[in-house]
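Tutorial sheet, problem 5. The two components below are modelled jointly, 604 residues in total.
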Amino acid sequence: MQKGYTLYWLLPALIVAIIYPILTDNVMLRETIFLILLSITLSVSLNIIMGYTGYVSFGHIVYYGIGAYTSFYLMYAYKLNLVVSILIGGVFASLVAFILGQAVLSLRGAIFAIATIGINEAVKSLISNIPFLGSAMGLYFDFSIYENYGGAIKAIWLSYYLMGILTVFSVVSAYCIKKSKFGLGLFSIREDQDASSVLGIKTKLYKSIAYAISAFFPAIAGGIFAFKSGNIEPSGAFNLVKSIEMIVMVMLGGYGSIAGSALGALIYEKINGVLVVLPYVKDLHLAVSGLILLIIVQFAPGGIVGLLTKYFKNLRKVLE
Amino acid sequence: MLVWVNAIINGVLIGLAYAIAALGLNLIWGVMKVINLSHGAFIALGMFAAYLSIKLLGFSVYTALIPIFIAGLAVGTVAFFVSLYRVLNEKELSTLLSTYALSLIIIGLGTFFFTTNPRAIDTHMGSFTLGYSSISYARIIVGVVSLLLAAALYLFLFKTSLGKAIRAVSQNPTASKLYGINTTLVLSVSFGIGVAFATVSGALIASLFPFTILSGSVYELKSFVICVLGGLGSPAGAILGGLILGLLENILTLKIPVDYMPFIEFTILVIILLIKPSGLWGRR
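Model answer (structure tokens):
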């Protein structure tokens, strides 16, 4: 596949955004950028299954929750190092996704979407009933756990660095997958699964691997987020609304496009930030995001990238 | 022993109310292959419509059902043109998101006007005792009304020309268009009926349990489970599924903590989707 220029501007932009709060030591900005990075990671990784293969994983947040719970529990009960725990959490969630994928990816279209909602709700309800995971109340860190990382302040900075690394890593992986032969196979599944299977693509294996990869990054992000906030509970970790926000971000930016998912996440976070602050709109921000989503789906199904590339054909190589 | 009888009676009665909610979802899926993610929002609207008509207009919850049904029909028909008409032939993602956007708008406005405080409707109906436990008359009325509604839907679908047109479109939209059926009208009316069933079931459920503006999503998820149990698109299946779910909820909770119920329900959902996607009742 021909080489594009997306990473040449996307990566520097990301890195500058990540480094800026570190240099200026601006804590407020760090918090804002942390949330944006989290959203970018989530939407870019959801895009790997949703944008590349066309499988709408409605309950994708389940892997964020599984990763968060796994790594949080390892740190909580065994005092394991943060980096080791989140990696274990990521691998575990991918494994779960791969195994579940063997079964649920044989479903298509809306039925698959319903099944993923079902999986998320089932896991949430199961964890709410497991006593050693804190049941519905969740788990809380003992504050002393941050001592191993040089105090709470340093620990929060550490989680910020990790989130930055994760975001860069997820964007680069998504790009490499898209440009690889594997990615081409995924796109052919999106266009016509039966035809691509006739052409010799192992559709089941391809889909499952894509699903496992798209579960990996959210799981790690969940682990970092749980470490940073110091507590975890089922209704926060398996929040279906957040799952749908991920889909909105991908749709807003442009489905299938990496630059689109990243831009979608950025713009969605910005819009949300503005709406929550405005005095009259504050209580209505749910309704306003619904309206935005409705307008995108009805009038611009390709999202922002779809609109831009429709009018400016030269931008295609820049906005992959 | 009497505990079991009681659980079975309560299960059947509440199962019928669930079945009405699921019938609306099922009709929409059957006719236009759309999973209506705004279903829960409309159930919540029905709950608040019942609440407001009692508080402001002084109706009883049962007389309010008729205006709620008509309003649901009208709102649903309009909602079809707002959210679905343009994207009906697109991929599932578009229809899922479009109906979800509608739900966000309704829930957002609802939260703004009604807040998320819990409310309840007192029907003053009393109850009668059966052995040690009691069954309230309100539940019996809910069960009977649900049965009547299901029967009315059956008569409508099989005996009236519009109902026959709906069934024709659900079997083959292109052929029905060729036979001169106004498919846009049929689709919008079926969406309207689906929404009307959602609002009425909301009103019925509100007469039994306390609710908030967010309660709709609980019953929406139950409706999914029911539709999958009975087979997506099969009206008789929705009733069977509703009864199964109502009975499961009431009988299993005699033995296991009620907190495990969602886990069991959704595990059933996923397993049935995997091994028999056409549902227990489904053909194919």
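Marking note: Chain B has one domain: 1-275. Full credit if you identified this.
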